[in-house]
Amino acid sequence: MLKEFKEFAMKGNLIDIAVGLVMATAFGTVVSTFVDGIIMPLVGQVFQVGDFSKLQWLLSPAVLSSEGKVITPESAVQYGKLISNIINFIIVAFVMYMIIKAMNKMKTPPPPPPPSGPTTEDLLAQIRDLLKK
């Protein structure tokens, strides 16, 4: 059983998937940083809302004690983070699309099928014609 697992784990496809997963995770982090640090401040500036990722719909405010300790934390729908994550997804999906498209262009096209030769009936007709001569 251990031998079978070793053969499975060392297959080229599994290693390729693992490398792709690590690369995708790193790429996702870069895109998140790009969106949160560059795109969202620009979007927030355009819509004049400041930090877009902090936009929320407050359902209930936090309840504090007289000492300033939080008794009940605030409850809010954080739609700014949702919009930021949607933009992250769109950027990652577009870049992955472009990478796959470029990889498909680099693939060599399959060789054309060999030309079909004469059919059996054609060959028999040729033999018949040669025998008549």
Would you kindly provide a written description of the structure presented here, covering whatever features stand out?
- With 133 residues, the protein is mainly alpha-helical.
- Helices cover 63% and strands 9% of the residues.
- The chain contains four helices and four strands.
- The chain has helices at 2-9, 12-46, 79-106, 120-132; strands at residues 57-60, 63-64, 70-72, 75-77.
- The protein has a two-stranded antiparallel ribbon. A two-stranded antiparallel sheet has the order 2-3.
- A hairpin with a 5-residue loop joins strand 2 (63-64) and strand 3.
- The protein is elongated and about 115 Å long.
- It starts with a helix and ends with a helix.
- The mean pLDDT is 83.
In short:
By secondary structure, the protein is mostly helical.
Query: In terms of structural class, how would the helical and strand content be classed?
Result: mainly alpha
Strand count: 4
Q: Strands of the biggest beta sheet: in what spatial order?
A: 1-4
Radius of gyration: 32 Å
Shape category = elongated
What is the end-to-end distance?
71 Å
Largest sheet: 2 strands, antiparallel
**What share of residues are in beta strands?**
5-15%
Please work out how many helical segments DSSP would assign: 4
Unreliable stretches = none
